[in-house]
Design brief:
Strand content: under 5%
Number of helices: 5
Radius of gyration: 14 Å
Helix content: 55-70%
Structural class: mainly alpha
Largest sheet: none
Number of strands: 0
Distance between the termini: 26 Å
């Protein structure tokens, strides 16, 4: 059975999303510091929205978590400076993935 990725360009990783992954995903060069900051924010946002008591490494092993991070980084990268005028705070696909992750992590931390 193939691993769930939710994106044909999603790199297969169990160590989380990296700056290099995001550069490839967004088809951009540079902006390393911006991407690093957005990845860190997205991971903390997702973790806090699900269960912040579960170690980040548990989440990073889930392909759908990594795709949720890519989705939020993508959204925030291309909407920098325009977020105050947005009708939505998060992409619906990000919220959908967080809901799926909630069910996957129940009971995985002991």
């Amino acid at each position: 059975m193939a691993e769930e990725t939710n994106s044909p360009r999603a790199p297969s990783t169990s160590t989380g999303v990296t700056v290099g992954d995001m550069q490839e995903y967004l088809a951009i060069d540079g902006d390393d510091d911006v991407l690093k900051s957005l990845i860190e924010y997205a991971e903390e946002d997702a973790r806090g929205s699900i269960d912040s008591t579960i170690d980040i490494e548990i989440y990073r092993k889930l392909p759908i978590f990594n795709q949720a991070i890519r989705t939020l980084v993508d959204f925030n990268y291309y909407n920098r400076g325009a977020l105050s005028g947005q009708q939505i705070a998060y992409p619906k696909s990000y919220q959908y993935m967080l809901n799926k992750i909630r069910w996957k992590v129940v009971g995985t931390d002991g």
